Amino acid sequence: MNKQAIDALLQKINDSATSEGNPRTKEIVNRIVQDLFYTIEDLDVQPAEFWTALNYLGDAGKSGELGLLAAGLGFEHFLDLRLDEAEAKAGIEGGTPRTIEGPLYVAGAPLSDGHARLDDGTDPGQTLVMRGRVLGEDGKPLAHALVEVWHANHLGNYSYFDQSQPAFNLRRSIRTDAEGRYSFRSVVPVGYSVPPQGKTQQLLDQLGRHGHRPAHIHFFVSSPGFRKLTTQINIDGDPYLWDDFAFATRDGLVPAVKQAEGAEGKPYGVDGNFALIDFDFTLFKERENLPGAEIERLRAAA
Ligand code: MBD
Ligand code: FE
């Protein structure tokens, strides 16, 4: 079809709408339908290909993989870059970079003051201690800030989604102390891979891509009056460090992993060798006329 004929059809569809409904939804859906009509025309998409795609999305939804797909197709990282841009325009730059939340957060993790142990002692991974401070953009420590942390086990799996792990394994919320300090003891995580038999992997195969993430630890860091930070740190040395299927690795989020032992582990109840990461988080003050940094999205809760 020529473009005029397509546009006439789009016009007819738009004209079928009353003044009811939601203007924002109308604007977005009409635009997406227009873009897809043009795509179908330009690429001569065949009916069987269209139905394959539609059923693919339905199946991906049924198996709970749409969040994974959003990460793997780069949408989640793109949304981050757009938030960065909005902040840069408002003069917010530097500080701890944000990076994607991913689909595996679970609300309701146990809350500790200052320090927490995330593992239950059964994970064979190397003992990890991570510690640091939460700071404001002026470099002053933020007392009683909230550090929510979650990560995968030695097999790259997350509790709740992996029913073989205890509830809230490797998930905690930690309040910083009066000097803005947090610390936790855990085990060094292993990188996640998308389910090999799942719908996301099926598409990645078609795209000639892998579904691996480098080892990482997720954080939400928040304090009243400050913009909530959603970020991750990566475990340096992972072969996928700069080859993440979700494009989430960023400069400034790859802290050194030191090997420590002996008395250094005492404050954290650790004997023997352990990996030690020092990392401070810097938050920006909330400002008017900026898109919120607290993202509303459906999340698991236990
Ligand atoms: C993860 O652990 C993750 O962080 C992302 C973004 C996608 C899938 C699994
Ligand atoms: Fe993750």
TrEMBL record:
Concerning SUPFAM superfamilies, the annotation shows: Aromatic compound dioxygenase
Q: Reaction catalysed?
A: catechol + O2 = cis,cis-muconate + 2 H(+)
The GO annotation for biological process reads: beta-ketoadipate pathway; catechol-containing compound catabolic process
State the EC number(s): 1.13.11.1
Keywords on record: Aromatic hydrocarbons catabolism, Dioxygenase, Iron, Metal-binding, Oxidoreductase
- One Pfam family it belongs to: Dioxygenase_C
Specify the domain of life of the species encoding this protein: Bacteria
- Tell me the cofactors it needs: Fe(3+)
Q: Which Gene3D superfamilies match?
A: Aromatic compound dioxygenase
Pathway, per Swiss-Prot/TrEMBL? Aromatic compound metabolism; beta-ketoadipate pathway; 5-oxo-4,5-dihydro-2-furylacetate from catechol: step 1/3
Q: Where is the Intradiol ring-cleavage dioxygenases domain?
A: 130-158
Metal-binding keyword on record: yes
GO MF, any single term: catechol 1,2-dioxygenase activity
- Record's family? Belongs to the intradiol ring-cleavage dioxygenase family.
Put simply, this protein is called catechol 1,2-dioxygenase
Species source reads Paraburkholderia ginsengiterrae
